[in-house]
Amino acid sequence: MDNYHKYLHISKIDKEWGFYVNTVGYCRTPKNIHYPSATEHPADHVFSWNKGRILDGYYVVFISSGSGVFESAETTPQIIEAGTCFLLYPGVWHRYKPNRNIGWEEYWVGFQGSYPAQIMEQFFTPKNPIVKTGLNKDLLVAFTNLLAAVSQAEMGYSQIVSGITLSILGLLNRINLTSSPKDDSESVWVSQAAFILQNRLSENINIEALVQKFPISYSKFRKSFKRLMGKSPNQYHLDLRLDKASELLGNTHLTIKEIGYHTGFESPYYFSRVFSAKFGMSPKAFRKNAI
Q1: Architecture of domain 4-177
Q2: Fewer CB within 10 Å: N-end or C-end of the chain?
Q3: pTM for the full model?
Q4: pLDDT by residue (tens digit) across 139-179?
Q5: What distance in Å separates the CA atoms of residue 227 and residue 225, rounded to the nearest whole number?
């Protein structure tokens, strides 16, 4: 996924809605890269590690890979690993950065309004802003949908992204109310693999190579994945890519060849064949019916 961010214009209707999003984004920071970039964000969002920053809204930042550190006026420095969210509060000084030797990937959404203020005050606290989500695929899907809705900017999208952001807060609250992710179950590796597959829809992934990173044999992993997810890891990833292709066919003006490329199909013929097998029609026919 390419780095992307947007700062939204807030209208009178958005404020009257009571819950409005002012920024969303995704950024991959490789190792040994200065963080954060001082050229890609408004002056009130840029900060240095030495000075930190104070914002006037609420933010959820989700670290999907890599590691780093977070600190605020309400907390001591906290080590942040992949599968962690941290919350930013209006008027609360904070700073964070990736490990320079590792880097990280982050998703974020900033929001304001009377309704989210009530939620944040009642269900979350700046004294405990860290939520260990694990590599939660539902959270990743929510952020992916958030970015897609903002980038397409269809009529009424401001209220749609407010709804998606509310669902993110709901997911975080559910995680806070339930036990922490377990470290001794095969389901952990299945969950992490599913998360990685969801996050890499533009690639044709070698599953066996992926599983080599886990302390589990491929045959055992494949059986566990199929038992928990209902299909093999290769089929799971293929279905994710095809579902994304169908979304792009219906909601964008990308050519069919471009859509195939963006979903990891270098051969237009193969893309058309597997798409037709899943949806019962060619990509061209699917797009025509979607209009």
Answers
A1: Sandwich (2.60)
A2: C
A3: 0.70
A4: 988 998 899 888 877 777 888 999 999 999 999 999 988 75
A5: 5
